[in-house]
Structures are given as C-alpha cells and as structure tokens.
Amino acid sequence: MRSRIEKFGLIGLGLIAGVLISLQLSAIADKESAEPLPIEELRAFSEVFGRIKSDYVEPVSDKKLITEAITGMLTGLDPHSAYLDTEAFKELQIGTQGEFGGLGIEVGMEDGLVKVIAPIEDSPAYHAGMKSGDLIIKLDDVLVKSLSLSDAVKRMRGKPGSKITLTVVRKDAPKPLLFTLTRAIIKVQSVKSKLVEPGYAFVRITQFQEHTGENLASALNNLYKQNQAPLKGLVLDLRNDPGGLLNSSVAASAAFLPKDALVVYTEGRNAEAKMRLSAVPDDYLRGNEKDYLKSLPPAVKSVPMIVLVNGGSASASEIVAGALQDHKRAIIMGTQTFGKGSVQSVLQLGNNTAIKLTTARYFTPNGRSIQAKGIVPDIIVEDPATMDQDQTFRMREADLERHLTNSQEQDTKTDGSTKPAIPAPVAPAKPAPKREEGEAAKPKLLEFGSKEDYQLQQALNLLKGVNILQGK
C-alpha cells in the first residue's frame, strides 16, 4: 500500500516541481523571486496527492486533482484571481461584448459564500429586488459552501427561460429569503442618455464594455443636437456600475478631459504591469479604430458636470470618477465607492483555458490608491431608499476576505486630501411595507434618471446654482 502511495505521490511531486522550476527559471532575472524550492511543502503536496489517489472513496483522475490544485492556488490569493476553464473563459469573452445568459448579478466570494456586489440593471436579479451585500447560501438544493465561485456561477447560468431558486441571507432580514428567478439573456445597454430638462443632460454608464466609448460619443452628440444649444450642465451617472474594460474607462474620461491629461496609472511587479494611460487615442482605441471622440462638440470639455457614484461603483467606474475629480473637471456626488483598485490580467493558456490574475494596483492621476478605499465624493448625498439600512453592513472591497491591502496605508475614511467630503441634507426614507418572514422583499425599484431619483435631483439643483448645503 505504501509503495502505491509513494508512486502516486512522486507523480504529483514531479508535476508540481516541474511547474515551480519552470516558473523559477522564467523569473531568474528577478532576484527576489529566485527563492529555493519549498521542499517540505512539496513533500506534503505529494503525500496528499498520493493519499487521495490511493484512499479516496472513489477514483479521482489526475486531471481533476491538478485542476483543483490550480483553482485553489488562485482563489487563495485574493477575491478576484481565478482559474477559467474553457466554458468560463468563453463566458468572460462574451460578457465584455454586452450580452450573456444568466441572472444578472455581479458576485464575489466571502467565507465560502457567494456575495452580491451589485445586480445588473434591468436583469432578473435586479427586478426581483436582490441587493448589494446579499449572501447566497443555496442554489436550488445545493449548498454554496461546497462550491467554488466558478462552479456557483456555472449553476446560476443556464438556458434562458429556466428557473432557479436562490436562498439568500440579508442582514436586515430575520430569516433567509427565497428568490425564484427566471434565467434570461442579459443584454446590457452600456450607455443611456436623455435631456432631463432643457439644457440639462443625463448620461448613465451601466458597465464598461467594448463599445462603451463609441456609445458615449454617440449619446453626447445626440444630446447636443436635441438641445440645439450648448448644454448648461451634465450629470454622468456611474452608480451601480461594476466596471469592465480598462480602455473603455479611459475613453469615457478622455471625452471630458483635455488631450494628454493623465487618466490612471498602474503599479505592479513586472514592467508590463506598469502603465500610464492618458486622454490620447492610442490609450483607448482598439487596433485601427477611428477616433470616435474626435467628433464631439468642443463644449463637452467644459460643460459643468456632476458625477454620481455609490457603493456599487467599482473598478473602471472608480477610475473615471477619480480622474475627473483629480483634474477638478467634475464634482463627485453620492456615497463612497466600492474600492476595487486592482488590475486583473486574463492570461490565456494553451488549452482554451485562462487564468485571471491580479497583476497591479490602480492609482488616480494625483497618486491616490483606489484599492480598499474607493473614491470619496466631494459632496455626500445618500439615497433615501437605502437610509434605513445599517451603514455597517454595506459591502465594499475592504469587506471581502483576502482583499489586497492599500499600499498607502491611509485612513479608509478619507480620500487622501485635506478637504473633507461635505454631507448634504437627505430626505427622510419612507417606511418599508410589512411582509411575512422569509418573503423576499420586492421594493419599488428606483429608476435612475427619473423624477423620483433624489440624488439626480440634488445634482441638478447644484448645477442650477441652488445651495443644497443649506436645508431645513
């Protein structure tokens, strides 16, 4: 028996040692990385490999064990690194193009449970009333604790029209809530726009996709044509925008900033991870694309602007908000953003799989790290619909298990400047209707950009010169 264990263990040891040696050789130029092979840990790995092969209740293939080992290596690093099998890699590519199947939830992992970062607007999850911070503990009859994040996402994906029941723990609910959702093709309209009043425009970016830059340019051109005069003010809405493609966030920033203005820079261990991206076509166009921002009216660069953000504004949307704030191009209004200031590189492997690996941190033009801090608004305006929620339970990057720390080690309650954010008066929230225990709440959904949108109305008041800092 022992000889069998040793045989299987040696196979595992050979595999992992080969990988480590190849990695060590590729990093030989980095003296800090050229450490001796961890012999004791390799011995433990080989013993575990051998024990599973010889003693596990059912036969397990080498392929499965190695795949699970790779998955564990990545998920143990931080909440955003992951192994993408063939299906997951394909879904990631489809998702950046703005159409995919599923429930419409941006999720992460915490303590072995799936945590909702934000429901995607107009999706089944959004219309059912799921909220940021919800913890999914069961998918139909399967406990999430037994699944990896990629496995959980696979179960939530499925044929459009099919149903799935999610069991959710919510901080303000005495019992778990049940959501029965119907899967659908999620078509994310990246840019929405309209004239809310004569002279005042509203532009909402829901997610940064491949064509967000072109869509934004088209929306701005149409708004100026509709108004038939220079705009008096513009509200850029990035609330609940979970992010997306980096070059699209640079394009959105470049639409409003002077040419050559720095948008964001990144710092990582390798030279490829160190970038400085500015408001120039080379930093936001894909390949031989035509410069779609060139046709924008010059007045776009100087129109008074408010940017709306909240705890669901993450990653690429934080890059835009930080760039416009640092260049004093816009006033940031709303609540503190999510704080996802890390860069994930998708590194394709040779078998139609890939790894999504955190390779750098984002910094705003003035050198502020976004990671685990986010962007603090210039003027804090709460959404009255969420005022009844305990502030402690609002989820941000800093709440995720194994999140990267902020290298600047500043107080998370400040934005690194000496000027504190200014709170604005908030309308009292209406009491929520009573419901039976265990019943999932289905509140009246706020339509961003509507007359009932309190934060938008405050932004318009500020643009019109009304002093919103003095209330009753």
Output the CATH topology of the largest domain: 2-enoyl-CoA Hydratase, Chain A, domain 1
Largest sheet: 7 strands, mixed
CATH architecture of the largest domain: Alpha-Beta Complex
Rg from alpha-carbon coordinates: 24 Å
The strands making up the biggest β-sheet line up spatially as 10-11-12-15-16-19-20
CATH class of the largest domain: Alpha Beta
Q: How many domain units?
A: 3
Family: Belongs to the peptidase S41A family.
Protein name: Carboxy-terminal-processing protease
Domain PDZ: 89-157
Pfam family, one: Peptidase_S41
Blueprint of the fold:
Layout lengths: L1 H25 L12 H17 L6 H14 L6 E3 L1 H10 L3 E4 L2 E6 L2 E7 L4 H5 L6 E5 L2 E2 L5 H8 L6 E7 L7 E6 L1 E4 L3 E7 L2 E6 L6 H16 L5 E5 L8 H9 L7 E7 L6 E4 L2 H4 L20 E5 L6 H11 L4 E4 L7 E7 L5 E10 L15 E2 L41 E2 L30 H10 L9
Parallel strand pairs: 11-12, 12-15, 15-16, 16-19, 19-20
Antiparallel strand pairs: 1-18, 2-9, 3-4, 4-5, 5-6, 5-7, 7-8, 10-11, 13-14, 13-18, 17-18
Helix pairs in contact: 1-2, 8-10
GO biological process, one term: proteolysis
Family: Belongs to the peptidase S41A family.
Keywords: Hydrolase, Protease, Serine protease
Kindly summarize this structure in a few lines.
Helices cover 27% and strands 22% of the residues. With 472 residues, the chain is α+β, with helices and mostly antiparallel strands.
